[in-house]
Write a structure and sequence with these properties.
Elements (H helix, E strand, L loop, with lengths): L1 H17 L3 H14 L3 H13 L4 H14 L4 H10 L22 E2 L2 E3 L9 E4 L4 E4 L5 E3 L9 E2 H6 L11 E4 L6 E4 L5 E3 L6 E4 L12 E2 L6 H14 L12 E28 L2 E14 L2 E7 L5 H7 L9 E2 L9 E2 L6 H19 L2 H4 L2 E6 L3 E20 L2 E8 L5 E3 L16 H6 L2
Parallel strand pairs: 1-7, 11-18, 12-16
Antiparallel strand pairs: 2-10, 3-4, 4-5, 6-18, 7-8, 9-10, 11-15, 12-13, 12-14, 12-17, 12-18, 18-19, 19-20
Helix pairs in contact: 1-2, 1-3, 2-3, 3-4, 4-5
The chain binds zinc ion (2 copies).
């Protein structure tokens, strides 16, 4: 009875607020707050109180009260982000009617990396820390401190940035020789074909796109990548049937998500019931939540080799992610995402749900009629990270098979033959020589 009464107070409050009758709305809403013990009613009433006031301090405190009863109240979180200046109200979009994106080639700006001492090309040395001049070997050590910033999920989802992918070709002028060149939408680093200057596209100017926040630096060179490939091929008894190209080093984008909230579950359990007629079994219904704290769940941000990349992702040490700095990309191929953050977040939710269901605590296993729900899983934050990968193909078993090497720690990922052949007697010869030659 009490409950229905509070709900109808809330309902009337909302109707009055929508009709612009602020004073009446306020009376209903305050009455609902004083009457109700239901978190759902309380949070909604506080939310509507925040809507009917023009006083920023009162608005903030109403929103904070709303969130104290429902952390997941998306509209309140969004309003608070606007109040805090983290979200520009003009940028908010309707996700069901995304604005059209121009595919006209866009003028891009880029950083060029040349040696301040001799003017030759600076490249990122794959030692994880330094930029080195190819000619005079002048070295610049990149800062190793700092942490890659997490981005607020809700704010990004409220704007077009959370939903889009790069679609326009990028045009830019080489600052070395003035040549103009064009890059595909998702490629962000390139070397000028005429003067060989390394460039990295500056993403700050682009309001439609999310920028990488983190990067895991390439930690070894092509020769080391070739050695790793060779020993992997040997260990798996593969006899390459044709030429194997040297692995190519590239940075590929991944999204990482921090997920909180809870997995709701319900089920039944038998419990002994000590009654007057001796003990018997009674069915008890259980309805509870299992709290979730998942940090940095990685999801591929590029479609091209997503299935291979997915299998390699768990091998990355994401805690070693550094703040993004374009210098790590000097003279390395790099791509940004072609899977939008919004799409990837759905993938992340379902991966998290599958993973967590397997880890639910033991007492849940004793329940029958078990039902779980991901409805209360909450993506809190995310970031775009560029991960170092080496890629090549190895021909065997009648097809070319993609092989990826984790550029951070050398872990190799690829399909292996179901029936390995015996090792060739001559060991490290033939195709291997080409790979390891200087
Ligand atoms: Zn130099
Ligand atoms: Zn040039």
């Amino acid at each position: 009875m009490q409950r229905d009464y509070a709900e109808s107070l809330l309902h009337n409050g909302i109707v009055e607020a929508k009709a612009g009758e602020m004073a009446t709305a306020r009376r209903y809403l305050e009455r609902a707050i004083n009457t109700s013990g239901e978190h759902a009613v309380l949070s909604e009433a506080w939310y509507w109180l925040s809507k009917i006031t023009d006083d920023p301090a009162e608005k903030r405190s109403a929103l904070e009260n709303c969130l104290s009863f429902d952390m997941r109240h998306a509209r309140a979180r969004r309003e608070l982000a606007i109040l805090d200046g983290k979200l520009d109200a003009r940028e908010i979009i309707n996700p069901d009617a995304l604005p059209a994106v121009s595919t006209d080639p866009a003028q891009a700006t880029a950083d060029r990396f040349m040696c301040p001492q001799c003017g030759a090309k600076m490249v990122f040395a794959p030692d994880g820390v330094s930029l080195i001049c190819e000619y005079c070997t002048r070295t610049q050590i990149l800062p190793s401190r700092g942490e890659a910033k997490e981005q607020d999920f809700l704010i990004a989802m409220a704007t077009a940035r959370g939903h889009g992918v790069p679609v326009a070709m990028q045009v830019f002028h080489c600052q070395g020789c003035g040549a103009e060149f064009i890059l595909p939408p998702d490629v962000i680093s390139s070397t000028c074909a005429y003067c060989d200057s390394p460039h990295v596209v500056s993403l700050e100017s682009s309001r439609e796109l999310l920028q990488p926040e983190g990067i895991i630096p390439q930690a070894f060179d092509q020769k080391q990548a070739a050695r790793l490939l060779v020993s992997w091929v040997e260990q798996n008894g593969i006899n390459p049937q044709g030429i194997v190209d040297l692995p190519r080093g590239v940075y590929l984008p991944i999204w990482t998500f921090d997920i909180g909230g809870a997995i709701a579950y319900s089920g039944d359990r038998y419990e002994a019931d000590e009654g007057l007629q001796g003990s018997s079994q009674k069915v008890f219904h259980v309805d509870d939540e299992y709290p979730v704290h998942l940090n940095d769940l990685p999801v591929p941000a590029s479609r091209k080799i997503a299935s291979y990349l997915s299998r390699l992702l768990p091998s990355f040490e994401l805690s070693a992610t550094r703040p993004y700095d374009p210098r790590y990309l000097a003279n390395w191929a790099a791509e940004v995402y072609d899977i939008s953050m919004a799409d990837a977040s759905l993938d992340a939710r379902s991966r998290a749900y599958t993973q967590l269901k397997r880890k639910l605590p033991g007492d849940i296993a004793s329940l029958f009629n078990l039902k779980t729900s991901s409805a209360n899983l909450l993506i809190e934050s995310f970031k775009l990270v560029l991960a170092p990968i080496w890629i090549t193909e190895v021909p065997f078993g009648g097809q070319k098979s993609l092989v990826l090497i984790n550029g951070q720690n050398g872990i190799v990922q690829g399909n292996t033959p179901s029936q390995p052949r015996p090792k060739p007697k001559n060991g490290l010869f033939g195709w291997l020589d080409d790979l390891l030659d200087d």
